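Hi all, posting the design record for the shared folder.

TITLE: backbone redesign
STEP: 1 of 1
STRUCTURE INPUT:
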């Protein structure tokens, strides 16, 4: 529902502002280089993977599950319906499966945060889409996740400067359609994995190697 509302709103805005926006883009000075919320230069390295179908997204989540641990933060970005929850769900279910558990992993769209206790860690799965102000993050108790937890965040931009510097960033995008035709959501996705410090540099290389095998 919210996806449809948002896309109608976006379409409306692009019709209203489309032409003036184009003219403005031609006249406006070049914007400054994009910075992280903490105003630091871009991280490296980054790895791009193709996810041709939903099963591939699941497989990436399952692969990541073999490389995560307590204290990790994974920021999942991408448009509405890009596959953030699918990836988080596959990752969480893989961690639960290690303990022989088979559980539903609902989207935290309305609860904002769902937690899962395992023998090794607490998994925090957050969807911050509905957050109006980064200060509201404090009320969600996400800081506790830093203490021995694994934190998976959808819509991490909503955290502003509260977003932990050390993290893995996974950006999901719809893949382009064939022959220049407009693509549809079923066309598949791509995932860009970016290391923001810690041991993520090595880990994303290992994840990518395992994923493409
Ligand atoms: N690689 C893929 N190719 C095609 N479809 C995919 C792929 N990965 C996930 N999907 C599908 O995309 C749909 C939306 O996924 P999902 O709910 O995970 O998106 P989301 O990014 O969490 O959206 P929201 O921003 O609303 O939380 C699901 O139907 C899922 O099966
Ligand atoms: Mg989601």
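Okay, here is what came back for every position:
SEQUENCE:
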């Amino acid at each position: 529902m919210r996806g449809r509302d948002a896309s109608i709103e976006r379409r409306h805005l692009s019709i209203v502002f489309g032409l003036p926006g184009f003219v403005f883009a031609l006249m406006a000075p070049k914007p400054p280089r994009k910075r992280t919320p903490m105003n630091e230069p871009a991280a490296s390295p980054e790895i791009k993977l193709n996810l041709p179908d939903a099963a591939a997204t699941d497989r990436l989540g399952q692969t990541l599950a073999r490389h995560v641990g307590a204290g990790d933060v994974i920021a999942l970005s991408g448009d509405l319906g890009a596959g953030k929850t699918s990836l988080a769900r596959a990752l969480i279910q893989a961690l639960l499966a290690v303990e022989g558990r088979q559980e539903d992993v609902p989207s935290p769209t309305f609860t904002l945060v769902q937690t899962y206790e395992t023998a090794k860690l607490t998994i925090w799965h957050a969807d911050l889409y509905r957050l109006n102000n980064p200060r509201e993050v404090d009320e969600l108790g996400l800081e506790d996740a830093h203490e021995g937890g694994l934190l998976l965040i959808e819509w991490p931009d909503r955290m502003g400067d509260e977003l932990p510097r050390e993290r893995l960033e996974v950006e999901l995008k719809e893949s382009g359609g064939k022959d220049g035709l407009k693509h549809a959501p079923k066309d598949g996705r791509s995932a860009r994995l970016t290391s923001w410090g810690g041991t993520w540099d090595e880990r994303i290389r290992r994840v990518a190697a395992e994923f493409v095998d």
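COMMENT: The longest strand covers residues 167-174.
Let me know if anyone wants the other runs.
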